[in-house]
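Table S4 entry, LysR family transcriptional regulator.
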Amino acid sequence: MDIDKIEYFFASAELCNFTKAAQKCQITQAAMSKYINSLESELNCRLFYRNNKGCELTKQGAYFYDEMQRIAYLYEQVKIGIHERTEPLIRAGIEGEHHAIPEFQMFQTVNPEVVFDIHFADRETLLQALELERLDVLLLIRNQPDVNELGNPFKVIDLPGEKECLIFSNNALQKYGTVEEVIKNLPMITKSDDRKYHDYCREGLKRKFGVEPEEIKVIDSVTNQQLVISLSKGFAIVPGFEITEESVFHSVQMDEVFMTGLQMVYNKKNVTVETRKLITYIKEAFAK
């Protein structure tokens, strides 16, 4: 299996259509079909159900997708890690949907020479990367499950909770009339492709508003996300600290339903000078 071509499989799984996946990967449909057939033959199992509308993952295909996402992420980290660092750098992994991290931003105001290399992924992938010393610190959502139970070599610092907000355009509210109708009629926009996070959002919205979105769209660019929302083509859930008086979006605070408590986790076997500075700063400024 060619790890560099695994994006062909990811695109097919995410778009549920081999033709669209081939277009995204800039290859012919014949080449895409040949790759998928070869992959299924190599694994000796069926990864997709085919139908007139496109394709969808089998149970084995869904398992392969989740596991290969982790492997592909670690592979990219290995490629980065083999190059010597040329500047003070903290490699940080973040679970969830945070676009900006106030703890890191405030640290940089007093340590402007330190650069953060941010990576978003699911919890298991991040913890594995931390253990393999491919990341220096993690910000994880508290109690999902409790990181304090992990033990060696991880150390945990609890951070304050942060309420999240639902945002959408004022035009969307005028068009649909209520928050509930906005949620029912527009897709939720997120940069996370973690299905567990999608389920978490659906359940939280249903608990608070009694409805859930019919569709969740993954858009990995914050700029493109904001454009989609401003055009009344979707809504998003963001940390409360991102909402300012200058914000052009209508926002609804999610109260206790979406309260994000964070934990900073580091590997005590791999503490760089920059990471030690961050740990000291976090303990003094934020830790409970």
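Residues 163-258 form a domain with the D-Maltodextrin-Binding Protein; domain 2 fold (CATH 3.40.190.290).
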